[in-house]
């Protein structure tokens, strides 16, 4: 009798689910300051410009820590580096709830410094996501995988903006930081128990490992047995090449534009709804989730369309560019909000 071939396990989708959950909490923690912002603004007497500095502090350290974060991922692997990242950013988020015990310049300075620390701690997150997706997913599935964990940034607002609005309304602004920071710490230990490289995961079978490796997955990338590279690289030469590549320059510009929109919805949109549209923080939490629903659905759909284009014979370049270009053209619709007054129209356009 001919033995039946072993059915491939599907552990890579469990890894993707963990990436999605971690990224959801990651973006929810970034958005805590926006939901608590109106109350903090009143408590500390912050001007819009000062609020802008507090909101921006995260991004400053996040950018500066990208290269060190990538080095840590390469040196120590995603499992350990990402665990420490989650634990630290969650702890700093919890500490933001203590700012109310301070007053004046001390409170503002502490708030600013904690946002800097959160940004630095979160720097390895998206490089870690991409690294694990490259290790676990064949090329033909990688667009869908990336779309799913990227869509978590919108799902975070869908799920947590109403919850955080309710927390501020019912228990005060401090509760947002304590609850979200606590969730992150729990997630850090779930990560530690469930995430491995393909060759080290106890749940993967040989059929799945062979399938993803044949499809282009970099299965040795996260292996414990992988020898530490000893080849010395000319770092500045590599950076010059990365900055001088025309295709990558297009990627950088596109990512800049996408992040501008994302951070508007994560930070200023809830504040805008409360201060300019005069909504309660509870209502603003629910309304802020509506554009994120569209972002979540559009993000997942973009990845699925991209992968289907590849399977139908479209070039890799065209398949990856089409959803991005289409999405950025649709984003131009935000300009319409300058010319309408009704709240429902503003929310519909957003």
Helix percentage range: over 70%
Structural class label? mainly alpha
How many strands, which pairing sense, and closed or not: the largest β-sheet?
none
Number of helices: 14
Compute the separation of the termini in Å: 62 Å
What's the CATH architecture? Answer: Up-down Bundle
Count of strand segments: 0
CATH class: Mainly Alpha
Strand content: under 5%
CATH topology: Growth Hormone, Chain: A
Question: What's the alpha carbon Rg, rounded to whole Å?
Answer: 21 Å
User: What do we call the CATH homologous superfamily?
Assistant: MFS general substrate transporter like domains
- Give the SSE string: HHHHHHHHHHHHHH
Q: Domains counted in the coordinates: how many? A: 1
Average pLDDT number: 84
Stretches where pLDDT is under 50 for at least 5 consecutive residues are none
The shape, in one word, is globular
What is the topology?
Layout: H1 11-44, H2 48-64, H3 66-76, H4 78-95, H5 104-122, H6 125-136, H7 139-171, H8 174-194, H9 206-214, H10 235-244, H11 246-275, H12 281-311, H13 316-331, H14 343-349
Helix pairs in contact: 1-2, 1-4, 1-6, 1-7, 1-8, 1-11, 2-5, 3-4, 4-5, 4-6, 4-8, 6-7, 7-12, 11-12, 12-13
């Amino acid at each position: 009798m001919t033995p039946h071939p072993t059915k491939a396990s599907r552990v890579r989708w469990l890894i993707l689910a963990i990436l999605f959950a971690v990224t959801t909490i990651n973006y929810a923690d970034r958005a805590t300051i926006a939901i608590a912002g109106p109350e903090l603004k009143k408590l500390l007497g912050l001007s819009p410009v000062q609020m802008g500095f507090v909101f921006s502090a995260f991004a400053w350290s996040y950018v500066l820590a990208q290269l060190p974060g990538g080095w840590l991922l390469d040196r120590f692997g995603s499992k350990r580096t990402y665990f420490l990242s989650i634990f630290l950013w969650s702890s700093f988020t919890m500490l933001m709830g203590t700012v109310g015990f301070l007053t004046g310049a001390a409170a503002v300075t502490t708030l600013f410094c904690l946002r800097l620390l959160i940004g630095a701690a979160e720097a390895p997150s998206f490089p870690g996501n991409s690294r694990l997706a490259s290790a676990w997913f064949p090329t033909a599935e990688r667009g869908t995988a990336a779309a799913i964990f990227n869509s978590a940034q919108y799902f975070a607002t869908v799920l947590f903006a109403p919850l955080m609005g309710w927390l501020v309304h019912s228990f005060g602004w401090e509760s947002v930081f304590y609850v979200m920071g606590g969730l992150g710490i729990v997630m850090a230990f779930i990560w530690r128990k469930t995430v491995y490289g393909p060759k080290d995961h106890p749940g993967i079978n040989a059929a799945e490992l062979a399938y993803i490796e044949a499809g282009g997955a970099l299965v040795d990338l996260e292996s414990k047995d992988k020898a530490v590279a000893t080849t010395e690289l000319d770092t500045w030469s590599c950076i010059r090449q990365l900055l001088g590549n025309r295709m990558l320059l297009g990627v950088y510009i596109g990512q800049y534009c996408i992040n501008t929109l994302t951070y508007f919805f994560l930070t200023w949109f809830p504040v805008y709804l409360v201060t300019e549209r005069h909504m309660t923080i509870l209502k603003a939490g629910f309304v802020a989730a509506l554009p994120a629903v569209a972002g979540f659905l559009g993000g997942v759909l973009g990845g699925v369309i991209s992968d289907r284009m590849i399977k139908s014979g479209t070039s890799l370049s065209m398949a990856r560019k089409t959803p991005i270009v289409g999405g950025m053209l649709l984003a131009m619709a935000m300009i319409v909000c300058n010319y309408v007054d009704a709240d429902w129209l503003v929310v519909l356009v957003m």
